[in-house]
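[09:14] KT: can someone run the structure on this one? pasting the chain below
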Amino acid sequence: MAKDADRAKAAKVERIVDPVVAEAGYDLEGVTVRPAGKRTQVIVTVDADVVDSDGLAELSREISVALDSSDAMGEQAYTLEVSSRGVATPLTLPRHWRRNVGRLVAVHMVDGTGFEARLTGADEVRATFEDRHVPYQEVERAVVQVEFGDDA
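[09:31] RB: done, structure tokens below
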């Protein structure tokens, strides 16, 4: 029962924050609302071509104003967390692929095979790697690999 209420509240929050996020130039990836002691935790996940801490801080202030001026949270005290998708988040939409061109990606295919290669291009239907084109519908899961350079 509480999970349904959390999902309903998350949907209400999403309707309020989506235009704020879009106006700031970000894509809304998701909203999670969950109990956190006597408060409620609101987590807003965003994505953009460039995401930095200053931009997220400003966006957090704008979202807070929008939530405080709405009835989405009722009288419930809440904490707000605004963050980016994170490097370990699977690539699921064409824009995720496009924003990671040039990065090393581990790809697990629906046929059970897999490979790791540098992403060299992406459009609305497929990703391009150094030696192949892969339609998104054939990808089960893909995650950017963290690379540590030896540049000093």
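[09:33] KT: thanks! The chain has three helices and eight strands.
[09:34] RB: yep, looked fine to me
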